[in-house]
């Protein structure tokens, strides 16, 4: 077989296989893609939160895309504690100024970056959050300081619609 | 298989069998020559078949009452427990049946490890078995999610998040698995679908597992090749059927003990709290049968490498027939392997215990040592042992050591000719 020169029939075989493969892929893709987030899930992509009642030193937790979001009104001590940390002490170096544009308000996903548990407020060695699942400690900026989590808690896209309302997403 | 061509006695039987040889198959299964020295460790194949059928029957009946929706799943399970006639019994059999299934499969696997049943010519039987085991774990994990309790939800979150360790595409895969941005209703409905599908895939693989078994025939405690049929074999029916049946009864006593006297002892109390995405339970542990692998996952400090180690711990079993270089099957004739075998059993039990404990301090250290030893056993000890170990002389037939006489090839041949 291999000694033979390619014939017209070989071309037909190759072309048929190629068309067949494209056809199979075209049928398989919808079956795979149907598992991705659907239109109704995507439609819930943003949520507005009234934060007027939150006092300094308090945290509220709201659900956004099925995940808890921590909104903390930080005290002056917490802000200065977060801003005085040296970058070289951080596992995942991020400036507090970049994480909290308005220093009084820290908005982040309340999801541990290790395996997705919800960390506890006002706990841990760094006065921030502590994840009970596998022992990750986060500071007052939600940055990972100790434990198995690789990254800081994620800051979602958000904006202040007005002084009292935050729009997440 | 017996030498003679099977002919049904009745005319109708012959007519049917000529068109679809089901009676020939039934005859093959009843006459199937089985080594006569099989001990009770060999009864777990039958017990596992019973477990699979029990899970399918109770699962089908539960599905008639269960509602796969995030808002209703938890309530529908309580509805099964309180309102449905015998719902409590069916659900407790199904939930404890999963544990019984794994108990039996672990005994079945460790029996193979002891008697070298995975070795040539039975590699394909073994590999199909490992695939069945993997599917069992997937089915058990997804089944545990369905009651939509706190452990269901957070177990699902932690396990699906393992895929986020994959570089670049990890996050995309997790979102795809969830069908959203967290474990939620789309996740529940697809897990229910797959949980329903997998047992039937397992059933198909069980048929292949038994088919592949019936080609070379059963291994046996002595681990030697035997002539079939001969004085070394007995027909499957009635000898093995009765023995398997007796073992099954004993097994059902244990099963019934759990179902009727401590139906929740193997579960977790937190799963009677409805799933809440805002609060994580203080201590997340998987079901007992997954604990050794959970311990391996947690003993590696790196997220990606931890996942790789856990998966390798299972997949390494698939290549075991080629890692074990010894020609002798049964540990009875392998004095060194026998000791390493029991160390491995202890190692896996230790890993299981460490998986249930918090991953810190001494627990973590022991888990790391045990993880290292697990891989050492398969990757270093087994390959070397095949060359270094001085094995004991193996008998020429199952009958020979019992009837006495010298292990003399001529004599054995003579015996075999007498047997005919």
Provide structural commentary.
The complex is a heterodimer of chains A (169) and B (420). In chain A, 25% of the residues lie in helices and 25% in strands. Chain A has helices at 8-33, 39-43, 76-83, 96-99; strands spanning 47-50, 58-64, 67-73, 105-109, 120-121, 129-131, 136-138, 144-146, 158-162, 165-168. In chain A, the strands form three sheets. Chain A has a four-stranded antiparallel β-sheet, with no helix packed on it. The longest helix of chain A has 26 residues, at 8-33. The mean pLDDT of chain A is 89. Chain B is an all-alpha fold. Chain B is built from 17 helices and two strands. Chain B has helices at residues 11-19, 22-31, 44-63, 73-82, 87-115, 123-145, 150-161, 170-178, 185-214, 236-261, 291-299, 303-315, 320-323, 335-356, 361-388, 400-403, 409-419, and strands spanning 33-35, 233-235. In chain B, strands 1-2 form a two-stranded antiparallel sheet. The longest helix of chain B has 30 residues, at 185-214. The radius of gyration of chain B is 24 Å and the shape is globular. The mean pLDDT of chain B is 92. Classes of the chains: A alpha+beta (169), B mainly alpha (420). The A-B interface holds A 32, 35-38, 41, 61, 63, 65-68, 114-118, 131-135, 148, 150 and B 154, 157-158, 161-162, 175-184, 186, 190, 277-284, 298, 301, 303, 358-360.
Please outline the helices and strands:
The complex is a heterodimer of chains A (169) and B (420).
Chain A: H1 8-33, H2 39-43, E1 47-50, E2 58-64, E3 67-73, H3 76-83, H4 96-99, E4 105-109, E5 120-121, E6 129-131, E7 136-138, E8 144-146, E9 158-162, E10 165-168
Antiparallel strand pairs in A: 1-10, 2-3, 3-4, 5-6, 6-7, 7-8, 9-10
Chain B: H1 11-19, H2 22-31, E1 33-35, H3 44-63, H4 73-82, H5 87-115, H6 123-145, H7 150-161, H8 170-178, H9 185-214, E2 233-235, H10 236-261, H11 291-299, H12 303-315, H13 320-323, H14 335-356, H15 361-388, H16 400-403, H17 409-419
Antiparallel strand pairs in B: 1-2
Helix pairs in contact in B: 3-5, 3-9, 3-10, 4-5, 5-10, 6-7, 6-9, 11-12, 11-14, 11-15, 14-15
């Amino acid at each position: 077989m291999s000694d033979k020169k390619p014939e017209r029939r070989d071309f037909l075989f190759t072309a048929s296989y190629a068309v067949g493969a494209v056809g199979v892929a075209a049928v398989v893709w919808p079956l795979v893609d149907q598992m991705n987030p659907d239109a109704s899930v995507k439609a819930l992509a943003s949520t507005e939160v009234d934060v007027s009642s939150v006092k300094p030193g308090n945290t509220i937790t709201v659900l956004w895309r099925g995940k808890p979001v921590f909104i903390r009104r930080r005290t002056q001590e917490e802000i200065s504690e977060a801003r005085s940390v040296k970058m070289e002490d951080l596992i995942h170096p991020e400036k507090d100024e970049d994480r909290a544009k308005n220093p009084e308000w820290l908005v982040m996903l309340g999801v541990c970056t290790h395996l997705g548990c919800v960390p506890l407020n006002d706990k841990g060695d760094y006065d921030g959050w502590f994840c009970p699942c596998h022992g990750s400690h986060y500071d007052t900026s939600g940055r990972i300081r100790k434990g198995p989590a690789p990254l800081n808690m994620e800051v979602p896209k958000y904006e202040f619609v007005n002084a009292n309302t935050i729009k997440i997403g | 298989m017996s030498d003679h061509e099977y002919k049904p006695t009745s005319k109708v039987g012959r007519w049917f069998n000529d068109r679809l040889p089901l009676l020939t198959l039934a005859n093959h299964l009843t006459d199937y020559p089985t080594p006569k020295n099989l001990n009770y460790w060999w009864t777990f194949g039958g017990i596992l078949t019973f477990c699979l059928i029990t899970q399918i029957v109770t699962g089908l009946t539960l599905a008639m009452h269960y509602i796969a929706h995030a808002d209703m799943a938890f309530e529908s399970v309580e509805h099964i427990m309180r309102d449905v006639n015998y719902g409590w019994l069916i659900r407790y059999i199904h939930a404890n049946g999963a544990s019984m299934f794994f108990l039996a499969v672990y005994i079945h696997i460790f029996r193979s490890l002891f008697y070298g049943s995975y070795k040539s010519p039975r590699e394909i039987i073994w590999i199909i078995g490992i695939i069945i085991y993997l599917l069992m774990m997937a089915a058990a994990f997804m089944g545990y999610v369905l009651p939509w309790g706190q452990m269901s939800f957070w177990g699902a979150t932690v396990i699906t998040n393992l895929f986020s360790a994959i570089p670049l595409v990890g996050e995309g895969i997790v979102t795809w698995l969830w069908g959203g941005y967290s474990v939620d209703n789309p996740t529940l409905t697809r897990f229910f679908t797959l949980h329903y599908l997998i047992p039937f895939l397992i059933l198909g693989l069980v048929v292949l597992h038994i088919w592949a078994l019936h080609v070379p025939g059963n291994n046996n405690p002595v681990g030697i090749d035997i002539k079939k049929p001969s004085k070394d074999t007995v027909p499957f029916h009635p000898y093995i059927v009765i023995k398997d049946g007796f073992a099954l009864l004993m097994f059902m006593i244990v099963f019934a003990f759990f179902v009727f006297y401590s139906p929740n002892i193997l579960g977790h109390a937190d799963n009677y709290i409805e799933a809440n995405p805002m609060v994580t339970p203080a201590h997340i542990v998987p079901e007992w049968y997954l604990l050794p692998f959970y311990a391996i996952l947690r003993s590696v400090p790196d997220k990606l490498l931890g996942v790789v180690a856990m998966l390798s711990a299972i997949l390494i079993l698939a290549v075991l027939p080629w890692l074990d270089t010894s020609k002798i099957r049964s540990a009875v004739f392998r004095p060194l392997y026998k000791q390493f075998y029991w160390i491995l059993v202890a190692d896996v039990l230790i890993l299981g215990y460490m998986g249930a404990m918090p991953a810190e301090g001494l627990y973590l250290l022991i888990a790391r040592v045990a993880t290292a030893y697990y891989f050492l056993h398969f990757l270093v000890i087994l390959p070397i042992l095949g060359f270094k170990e001085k094995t004991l002389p193996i008998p020429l037939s199952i009958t020979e050591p019992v009837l006495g006489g010298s292990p003399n090839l001529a004599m054995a041949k003579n015996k075999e000719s007498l047997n005919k």
